[in-house]
Design a protein that fits this description.
Blueprint: H1 7-16, H2 20-27, H3 34-46, E1 64-65, E2 71-75, H4 83-86, H5 94-105, E3 126-130, H6 143-160, E4 166-170, H7 172-184, E5 201-204, E6 207-212, H8 217-220, H9 227-241
Parallel strand pairs: 2-3, 2-4, 4-6
Antiparallel strand pairs: 1-3, 5-6
Length: 242
């Protein structure tokens, strides 16, 4: 079994990554948060009945998409039976169904669905990452887990920042993580800190931060987030990135 990392180990390894493939490999091996390791592996062993015959990924998720993106889409964490099963962020769950349909509708994806690693999906000028790379119980990472995982996000930003123009934060957790990430990278974060809301917009460090409600079932089933609302935010991101 791979030895557990502590927060300092994560920072050292993340800072040493010089290319995205190397970073992705390091991310996928991380075991720094005992609660998350236990949960993601338990879910992968026990499986949901609908996926009983599948082999779960059961590890942290690297980013996915363009290697020189103009747009970075930031989510909260992988779903237990979505990304934790398929090995790709926002893939194989209802949230991803909404997200990829909207990305395709505004020209940022070559197809409207994302079902698995071999489905042919390609993103256009866009990369998707999660603030926390492991599936958390009840989809709620702790502040300590968020902070331990942050160096992976910081390293990803450093590698894509030369081309990056827009960050889209899906939900208030991602909005806070995005502001913290940009601040750690040396950006002058406005004071008072910009507040999250659907369609919120802030200029930070030469980039535009856009907010959208997260496409979780809690929001989509209740009508808090509609497809036109999500399309509008992503269309704005596409326009601003050109």
């Amino acid at each position: 079994m791979t030895a557990a990392l502590d927060a300092d180990d994560v920072r050292r390894q993340a800072a040493a990554a010089r290319e995205l493939p190397a970073l992705d490999g390091l991310v996928s091996q991380c075991r720094a948060c005992p609660r998350l390791v236990q949960w993601r592996e338990q879910v992968a062993r026990e499986r949901r009945a609908a996926y009983a015959g599948e082999t779960y990924w059961g590890r942290p998720l690297p980013g996915f998409g363009a290697t020189a993106p103009r747009i970075l889409v930031l989510g909260l964490a992988p779903a237990a039976h979505g990304g934790n099963r398929t090995g790709r962020v926002f893939t194989g769950d209802r949230s991803g169904d909404w997200l990829f349909a909207s990305l395709h509708a505004v020209g940022l994806a070559n197809q409207p669905t994302s079902t698995g690693l071999d489905d042919g999906l390609e993103l256009v000028d866009t990369r998707i990452v999660a603030a926390v790379r492991c599936a958390p119980p009840e989809n709620k990472p702790t502040p300590e887990e968020r902070d331990t995982c942050a160096p992976w996000l910081d390293a990803e930003l450093a590698l894509v920042r030369p081309t990056l123009r827009v960050v889209v934060a899906l939900g208030s957790f991602a909005w806070g993580a995005a502001l913290a990430m940009l601040g750690r990278a040396g950006a002058d974060v406005p004071r008072p800190r910009p507040k999250f809301g659907h369609g919120a917009r802030a200029e930070v460090g030469g980039m535009t931060l856009l907010g959208s409600y997260h496409p979780s079932q809690q929001n989509t089933f209740t009508g808090t987030l509609t497809r036109p609302m999500l399309d509008a935010v992503l269309r704005t991101a596409a326009e601003l990135s050109r």
